[in-house]
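stage 2 :: seqdesign
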């Protein structure tokens, strides 16, 4: 059992008692490295407990969390209602294999989930345990429903790291290094990044031109040149690219892509694993862009940190027969109740209203920072899915990766947890319940980190 430190702090403000990583953190980091396989670790923060937007480490330091466990703890850490519901369930039933047997909690979770998913059609839910597994399910659903095997993904996209979803993932070379061939049959096309795109268009000034050029490229140079639509099952796209750098496409892009997909009998499969569950100020980012995806994947925040994901599809796309796909833990009872309660809290406590109030406020504060610091080339995002991009030179937009990494580390030393994304951006993704005062606290810590890094 881990000892509670006598110096255990109130979790309501940033408090750095010892420059992190402190002595206790260092010991655990070493033990971690001795026994855990390498993954994608970034900062040596060793958490002991958390509440709301604050996290305490094993040395008694308290941090403001602007990473939310990679956009998972959207209701804040250890939300009292979700905690109480899971605790109650722990004494009744934990697991019963919801793919093979029945229990009401899984049904209720699916009912709640479809009630907040865009689309005025009947839907079916396949529960999974992660984002990558949700995309694996979506790929199989698309193949089974269309009888086709080819797909189109986007450069800069991220969809997970198992072999099927990895074949779409294309935001960093390391993700695929040494793992070829992954699932065959995936072609990649450019994503309309308004800030840096292969067409050389300023997408903030000319959004329509950027959309037209992207759609035209896919239509003329891919579908009409070498990839017959009759063989293409689906496009897999993030409404806002997450791991690729928080890239928000021009408003009209997804509607145009849907039109192209419909004209060619191709499914539009939308990965809302990172954009979903209120992060952008609506339950799903698709709602900002006026589309109703027939295939939508989710995970991360849907059960507030109990592992859970889902592929939510138009009823007509359901697997044609039983046995084509299944798993052991999907729709697990504890995950299901956490998901139900998460959705109810989101609705009843008007969490989206807070995102729509604090999100624009925080973005404005970040824009003010960019006016003071030349090294911030771009501030982008919707709701509380925000990012700042560091550049060597505003004209060339050359990514300033080392500076970005220094800022991330200095912020950590100042008691602010941040997470990088893309080549040179830092994402700002606090729990959705953050207040304006707490957002100010974060911006101040960030500014100190920038000053110390340039
Ligand atoms: C858009 C998107 N899809 C899929 C995934 C994969 O999710 P997981 O790590 O739960 O497998 C992620 C993870 O960051 C993601 O951002």
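stage 2 :: out
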């Amino acid at each position: 059992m881990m000892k509670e430190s006598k110096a255990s702090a109130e979790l309501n403000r940033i408090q750095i008692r010892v420059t992190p990583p402190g002595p206790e953190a260092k010991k655990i980091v070493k033990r971690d490295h001795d026994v855990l396989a390498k993954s994608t670790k970034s900062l040596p923060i060793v958490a002991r407990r958390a509440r709301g937007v604050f996290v305490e480490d094993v040395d008694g330091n308290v941090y403001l969390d602007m990473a939310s466990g990679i956009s998972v703890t959207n209701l804040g850490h250890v939300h009292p209602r979700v905690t109480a519901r899971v605790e109650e369930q722990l004494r009744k039933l934990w697991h019963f294999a919801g793919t093979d047997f029945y229990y009401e909690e899984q049904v209720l979770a699916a009912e709640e989930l479809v009630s907040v998913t865009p689309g005025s059609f009947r839907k079916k839910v396949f529960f999974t345990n992660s984002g990558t597994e949700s995309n694996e399910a979506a790929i199989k659903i698309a193949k089974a429903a269309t009888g086709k095997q080819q797909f189109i993904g986007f450069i800069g996209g991220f969809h997970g790291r198992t072999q099927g979803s990895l074949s779409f993932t294309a935001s960093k070379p390391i993700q695929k290094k040494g793992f070829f061939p992954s699932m065959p049959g995936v072609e990649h096309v450019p994503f309309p990044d308004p800030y840096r795109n292969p067409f050389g268009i300023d997408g903030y000034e000319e959004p329509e031109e950027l959309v037209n050029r992207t759609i035209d490229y896919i239509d003329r140079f891919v579908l009409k040149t070498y990839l017959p639509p009759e063989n293409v099952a689906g496009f897999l796209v993030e409404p806002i690219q997450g791991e690729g750098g928080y890239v928000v496409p021009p408003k009209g892009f997804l509607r145009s892509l849907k039109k192209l997909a419909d004209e060619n009998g191709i499914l539009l499969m939308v990965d809302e694993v990172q954009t979903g569950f209120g992060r952008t100020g609506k339950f799903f980012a698709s709602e900002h862009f006026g589309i109703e995806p027939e295939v939508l994947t989710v995970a991360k925040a849907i059960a507030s940190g109990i592992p859970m994901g889902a592929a939510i599809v138009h009823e007509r796309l359901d697997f044609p027969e039983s046995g084509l796909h299944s798993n052991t833990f999907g729709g697990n009872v504890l995950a299901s109740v956490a998901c139900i309660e998460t959705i109810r809290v989101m609705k009843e406590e008007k969490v989206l209203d807070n995102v729509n109030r604090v999100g624009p406020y925080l973005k404005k504060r970040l824009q003010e920072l960019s006016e003071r610091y030349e090294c911030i080339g771009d501030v982008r995002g919707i709701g509380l899915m925000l990012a700042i991009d560091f550049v060597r030179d505003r004209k060339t937009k050359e990514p300033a990766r080392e500076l970005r990494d220094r800022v991330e580390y200095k912020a950590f030393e100042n008691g602010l947890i941040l997470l990088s994304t893309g080549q040179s951006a830092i994402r700002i993704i606090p729990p959705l319940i953050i207040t304006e005062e707490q957002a100010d606290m974060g911006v101040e810590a960030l500014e100190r980190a920038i000053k110390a890094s340039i």
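stage 3 :: structure notes
- The chain has two domains: 23-78+351-453, 84-348.
- Residues 84-348 form a domain with the Aspartate Aminotransferase; domain 2 fold (CATH 3.40.640.10).
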